[in-house]
Structure formats: structure tokens, C-alpha cells
Amino acid sequence: MAINSFDLQSALFSLLSGDSNLDTLLGNNKIFDGVAPQGTAYPYVVITGESTSNVGTKSLDGNVYRIELDIWSQYRGAKQIKDISQRIYTLLDNVTMGVSNASSVMSYVVSTTSFAEVDGITRHGLVLVDFTIYDN
Asked: Topology of 5-135 in CATH?
């Protein structure tokens, strides 16, 4: 059984950072791995948490990877977070992707959430995506 975590994250980063519509919403290709650099202007997206569940069989190796995408904004109101969430949903829901060393990759958006942070200014969006991967 292979763990395709890094290959999946690389493909996801390429997909998100290569989308001109998402880039228009974020400005200057602001997709980050783990944490945004200090002083990064809002809005931006961070690829953060991941969990993995084995869904393999006796004859087929497979895993479901749940990846968390965090959206950060200081736009007054929820429109910006919702627009960015919608674009990510469009890019990742019910989509087949190419990932190195995998024969089949399917993604589904599990949920989207948005809320105001305690400072009353910053808004936080969360998109959870499941990627089902079967190995070559």
C-alpha cells in the first residue's frame, strides 16, 4: 500500500494555484502550504490538516484523504469567503484528478463553513474535501 499524501498535496496545490478564476478572487496566487507568510495580505487560502482512512480491499490498495482548506479574509461581510469557497467547490467537487502513482483519484467536497473570528474583522472559511485514491 502506498501513502499518496505528498503527491496528492502537490497535485492539489498545482490545481488551485493554476486556476485563473481563483487567482482573480485571491490576487497574486495566494495558496499556501501549512501557514501563510507573516504579513500576507488578505484574502488567501492555506492547505492545512489531513487525515487518512484505509479503504483498500484484498486485491486493491486505497485510501480516503480528508484535506482541510482554510480561507482567510478581512472583507466586510461574508461575500468574499463565499465566492472563494464556491470556486474551490467548483474545482474539487465530484472531480477526477491525476496524482502520481495512483490509478484513480476522485474528490468530493464534504462541507463548507464560514464564521467571523473573535477580532470581529477577520473571516475564516473552511472547505473539507475527501480524495479517494486507489494505487497503481
From this structure: STM4215-like (3.30.2000)
